[in-house]
Amino acid sequence: MKKVTLNNGVEMPILGFGVYQIPDLAECEASVSQALEVGYRLLDTAAAYENEEAVGKAIENSGVARGELFVTTKLWIQDAGYDGAKRAFQRSLDRLRLDYLDLYLIHQPFGDVYGAWRAMEELYAQGRIKAIGVSNFAPDWLMDLIVHNHVVPAVNQIETHPFHQQMATQKFLQDNHVQIESWGPFAEGRNDIFHNDVLLSLAKKHGKTVAQVILRWLTQRSVVAIPKSVHKERIVENFDVFGFDLSADDMHAIAALDSNQSAFFDHRDPAMVKMLGTTKFNT
């Protein structure tokens, strides 16, 4: 598995397995177990997904050595703040049945992110987290966090797919030594992505599926991707993306699909900020 090297020297697989929207714990555990059998070693969950316990059980029963795994989870808004982050981190660690995390992310750029970051810096210094980062941070929010703190975030996990390609943001992140990671690599099927003419033609050209073309496009851009599926055949398929390369013309064709806007929602919409800030989970 190809890896990227984060700004603190930690290596992170460029392709992993996400568990967003797998609320059924038995199904989540089974899917993670299958992913580990296939060969995935990066697992991505979050307190807000309410399935950390299932991920932990799958890890415990997998027989895969802890040192081979790269486990990410995330801090939700209601737990932001110095004390809240410390407590939430321990709860996540307990549910995952681990004694350290590979990556801990602030899930949303709202609430007391500065208090949370101070707590995360301390946990990082203690070796309880191998790397710390953020999710859904726009460049200006990220720069504000960088200039007012000691540790530069290692990762920014943001919406990245063919319809919202984040080219300018990736350049900003590269310039500031922050690794880009894609959530929603398939745009959750929006805009009929799996039947897009450009992507279908590239899939036919390479003898691959649209999903495989998208994941290869991301990984060729050095974007970490975390596709999710509960179907064994697709879990296998999504892992098999390194046996071909997209040409410069292929990459250019996909670039033309960029709408440069979210397929989901605007983090700067006050109504969305209010909704996120008042949504509570069993974190």
TrEMBL record:
GO molecular function, one term: oxidoreductase activity
Start and end residues of each NADP-dependent oxidoreductase domain: 26-258
Keywords: NADP, Oxidoreductase
InterPro entries per record: AKR (IPR020471), Aldo/ket_reductase_CS (IPR018170), NAD(P)_OxRdtase_dom_sf (IPR036812), NADP_OxRdtase_dom (IPR023210)
Top EC group: oxidoreductase
Cross-referenced PROSITE patterns: ALDOKETO_REDUCTASE_1 (PS00798), ALDOKETO_REDUCTASE_2 (PS00062), ALDOKETO_REDUCTASE_3 (PS00063)
Keyword Oxidoreductase among record annotations: yes
EC number: 1.1.1.-
Alphabetized PANTHER family for the sequence: 2,5-DIKETO-D-GLUCONIC ACID REDUCTASE, NADP-DEPENDENT OXIDOREDUCTASE DOMAIN-CONTAINING PROTEIN
Family note: Belongs to the aldo/keto reductase family.
Protein name: Aldo/keto reductase
Protein source organism: Ottowia pentelensis
